[in-house]
Amino acid sequence: MAAEPFTYHRQGRSRITLCSLLAVWAALLLAIIAVDAAPWLMAIIALFTLPAVWELLTNPAAGLRMDARGITWFSGKREVDVSWNEVDHIRLDTRLDFSVRATAVLRGGRKLRLPYEATPPHQAFEAALQDLGVRTERHHFSLVG
């Protein structure tokens, strides 16, 4: 296990989030102006955009670092550090929306799910795990688990 350390880092604030938020608000405003939609109903729908607004304002960081010693991931104020001695394998589950969720399965059977926002793109992640000699398992389209 003498591979180079692998790091991944991302910020919560993104151009895609901002553009999506502006598009939703523009559509709601257009519905009020052009179709005479009820403003109170559009305001209720706009409430569903508040988590995206919060993410833009707080800009939470998330990331992951792997080296010969172990794996560390963080998301916001949460941080987990696990030694490779404790890890049996890393399970990569492809969901129906084609997102890949990662879980560290410990030797005792306990599972630690990596936060989605701290998980790197799955091809690079799996390649880095293999470079470090960590066993991986792929599971496609699992609805539970």
From TrEMBL:
Organism: Roseobacter sinensis
Membrane-spanning residues: 16-34
Protein name: PH domain-containing protein
Keywords: Membrane, Transmembrane, Transmembrane helix
